[in-house]
Amino acid sequence: MYAQMIKTARSGIKSREEMSEQERAFQDKIDNDIKIEPRDWMPDDYRATLIRQMGQHAHSEVVGQLPEGNWITRAPTLERKAILLAKVQDEAGHGLYLYSSAETLGETRDELVRLLHEGRMKYSSIFNYPTLNWADIGAVGWLVDGAAIVNQVALQRTSYGPYSRAMIRICKEESFHARQGYHAIMQMAFGSPEQKKMAQDALNRLWFPAMMMFGPHDSDSTHSEQSMAWKIKVKSNDELRQQFVDQTIPQIEYLGLDLPDPAIKWNEERGHYDFGDPDWDEFMDVIRGNGPCNVDRLSARKKAWDDGEWVRDGLLAHARKKASAKVAAE
Ligand code: FAQ
């Protein structure tokens, strides 16, 4: 369904006068912060935008397991292994909440997965960067989950009920993820000179990719204007990026690490940190499929999907058998 919907041309934001009565009633609900629920009427583009964003978000959670999962067997202590295992498992759960929420819009999980595997749906750019060593795992928890939380706390107030409720649940788990990451990086930053060097290197490499997670500048964002009018997004890409920078700089200073960007400077007038731009050409390249790990990530997901077919078939056969036994007994 989504594949057909995205083919329909976007008509831009309609003024109140251009809206039909049904569209005006819908916009009034949004403006009054009344959640939209699955059985409510909604414009086709609202539905398609949500399926796109929630589907991409779900894919990000699932693909996001790969860079960290890669380190479960090599975690430095049993405690770190148990923490990482729990975190990676949580990410799978987040993917499931989000696929289920997207299903309430009439799209199946199988279809979303198919579109991902065919390269027709995206997932977060950040997961196309490698995790080279243990410091990267700390930095992923600290910076990547940290950035994800900034975005997801705002999304708790999104206008679509099932998405908003999924976000509330996910945010509770994400804050454990960020804390465990910061704790891991703290141990390295306060550890031996070699460990501190690794922490610095991880920060330097992951800083700009983490900044890219918020998407292009508002002026270059395709969907922001309409998504904000519909309160699918409640804060803009640039607002969220600034919030992330402001909360993370004092954390870097506490660790005693060098700032990863020479342009970072407190701006008294704005009451915010100034900072430099990520390389947007690199961002575009990564989301077009040409990042350092895109090919590996997609092939790992396709393999997992294919290898799991017998499990899905078995579960379906069992569910069908149970359902027909129930019908026979009635
Ligand atoms: N990566 O018009 P906009 C996590 C695309 S969860 C890839 O501004 P929008 C947890 C965008 O899709 C991380 N593509 O788009 C975890 C659009 O292309 P399209 C995921 C990106 O949707 C931690 C085009 O660029 N979080 O990390 C990216 O209004 C650790 C134009 O952009 C979410 O998905 C990007 N970074 O705003 C898991 C949160 N940015 O679709 C495991 C929900 C933009 O037209 C381990 N999503 N694009 O072909 C959102 O809030 C929004 O979708 C944005 C983008 C803010 C990401």
Automatic annotation (TrEMBL):
Keywords: Oxidoreductase. One of its GO terms (molecular function) is phenylacetyl-CoA 1,2-epoxidase activity. Signal peptide: none annotated. Its EC number is 1.14.13.149. The keyword Oxidoreductase applies. It holds the Pfam family PaaA_PaaC. Residues 14-23 have a biased composition (Basic and acidic residues). Coiled coil: none annotated. PANTHER family: 1,2-PHENYLACETYL-COA EPOXIDASE, SUBUNIT A, PHENYLACETIC ACID DEGRADATION PROTEIN PAA. This is 1,2-phenylacetyl-CoA epoxidase subunit A.
